[in-house]
Design goal:
By secondary structure, the protein is of the alpha/beta class. The chain has helices at residues 42-50, 65-76, 141-144, 146-158, 173-179, 193-200, 205-214, 256-269, 274-288, 301-309; strands at 2-7, 10-16, 32-38, 54-62, 80-87, 94-99, 111-113, 135-139, 162-166, 188-189, 219-223, 229-233, 236-240. The protein is built from ten helices and 13 strands.
Length: 310
């Protein structure tokens, strides 16, 4: 599988063992501080590379030390970085994520800087370098806007690629309208459950996902956290469970959505049906939740497949 991961690239800093934010100038000792590549393009790229895909990243970063670290971490994972354009006038996108002792990523603060992701345009993308690839994954179409995202995805399909889209921002009807032009050119839309409900106003997840299929997406594969994933097409609905993780093994759920996307897309590239691909996605997410960030620990496609077999 030769894939381009286009769009949002972020350097995450995870601070582990946060029970509260110190008052005033007080300090606090923590268990671990770790940096990892992240974002709906960057995080997905890392996991795809670990699952055996040939991956190249495309997007915008700065010329700052944050960019140097991000490039180094991506390259260490085997992700090609020649498509990341460095912009002097923007800092590299970065986040600081305090992680509670239970590893949960919900109900905790986070600090984000959009940085160069907000300056990424199609003019910065070398389409000639994309020819001959199997798949184009667009992370964060909202930064390009629907017409530009639709243009890119339509072009990729014309070049024989399959396409996927993962939205970064929380879902609401206005955001859906902003990216609507991209959906008819999207083979796989990869939102979470909150985004689907926000986009469509539907409480029932399957009904909301069907509405996104009717808006043009070929397949909507929705992550549901601990409940697993729901895959909806015009032909039907498939639901698969999450893989259970013992409380002692859960470290950090940050990046699990990107990991699901990577596992699901890798499964499809290997010729697996939607259910088997979603199971591989859920197993990959479970693997990532056992470490800090998408690049934590050591795992391969064989490791994840062993989980699916259990």
């Amino acid at each position: 599988m030769k894939i381009a991961c286009v769009g949002v690239h972020v350097l995450d800093t995870h601070v582990i063992g946060i029970e509260s934010i110190p008052d005033g100038s007080d300090g606090q000792l923590v268990e671990t501080i770790r940096m990892s590549p992240a974002g709906t393009a960057g995080g997905t790229a890392v996991v795809l590379a670990r699952l055996g895909a040939e991956v190249t990243s495309y997007g915008a970063i700065g010329t700052d030390p944050i960019a140097d670290v991000l490039l180094s971490l991506l390259a260490r994972e085997g992700v090609g970085t020649q498509g990341l354009v460095r912009l002097e006038e923007h800092q590299t996108s970065a986040s600081v994520l305090p992680v509670r002792p239970d590893g949960a990523s919900k109900d905790r603060p986070a600090w984000h800087c959009i940085g160069a992701n907000g300056a990424f345009t199609l003019d910065l993308l070398d389409r000639a370098a994309l020819t001959g690839l199997d798949h184009l994954h667009l992370g964060g179409p909202e930064f390009l806007g629907g017409p530009a995202a639709g243009e890119l995805l339509a072009w990729a399909r014309g070049e024989g690629m399959t396409t996927s889209v993962d939205v970064l921002a929380p879902g609401d009807p206005d955001l859906l309208a902003w990216i609507a032009d991209a959906l008819p050119h999207t083979d796989y839309l990869l939102p979470n459950d909150e985004q689907v409900r926000g986009f469509t106003g539907q409480d029932d997840l399957a009904t909301g996902a069907r509405a996104l299929v009717e808006a043009g997406a070929g397949c909507v594969a929705v992550t549901q956290g601990a409940r697993g994933a729901l895959v909806v097409t015009a032909e039907g609905v498939v639901e698969v469970p999450a893989y259970p993780i013992a409380e002692a093994d859960l470290v950090d759920t940050t990046g699990c959505g990107d990991a699901f996307s990577a596992g699901f897309l890798r499964g499809r590239s290997l010729g697996r049906d939607l259910e088997a691909s979603a199971r591989l996605g859920c197993a990959t997410a479970g693997q990532v939740a056992r470490g800090l960030g998408t690049d934590a620990g050591a795992y391969t496609l064989a490791d994840v497949e062993a989980t699916v077999g259990r």
